[in-house]
């Protein structure tokens, strides 16, 4: 928010994917006067045991397909990516052991006031479909768009459809 203030933006829209979507949800709840519109995809507001099973199944990135693993290794380096992803899975596990039972930002969702578009791939193997439905139920006047063949990276796999959805919503 400091960056946007330094750039002299009074209001702006946020888009966030996965953990970036969680960050955008938190920002929209904490700074409602600054956020014009919000788009999230592949995001969740809490972590469940079902989520942990999915995360643990992919914790070892050496078991990923090369098509999924290589772009991340090229970007972050093979060793750093493997170490960081494993640490992320362990952090998610720690969240579920806390007294607030896996809460990331579910308590903040009712404070989001801006128009919100939640996009979700129905074949997302990282974020089960109950998460976008929960987010949709908690954010007043939000819209939920499900992509039947979309996975966690639906914006990369279906860039034209994704771009059209987002542009239509933001305009």
Level-2 CATH architecture of the largest domain: 3-Layer(aba) Sandwich
Fill in the CATH topology of the largest domain.
Rossmann fold
CATH class (first level) name of the largest domain: Alpha Beta
**Number of separate structural domains:** 2
Q: How widely separated are the two ends?
A: 22 Å
Based on CA atoms alone, the radius of gyration comes out at: 16 Å
Low-pLDDT residue spans: none
Write out key terms for the chains shown:
171 residues, alpha/beta, Rossmann fold, four-stranded parallel sheet, 4 strands, 47% helix
Descriptive overview:
The structure is a single chain. By secondary structure, the protein is α/β, with parallel strands linked by helices. Helix content is 47%, strand content 14%. The protein has helices at 2-6, 19-30, 49-57, 66-76, 78-96, 130-138, 154-157, 159-170, and strands spanning 12-17, 35-41, 116-121, 143-147. A 4-stranded parallel β-sheet has the order 1-2-3-4, with helices on both faces. Helix 3 runs antiparallel to helix 5 (78-96) and helix 4 packs across helix 5. The longest helix is centred in the middle third of the chain and has 19 residues, at 78-96. The relative contact order is 0.17.
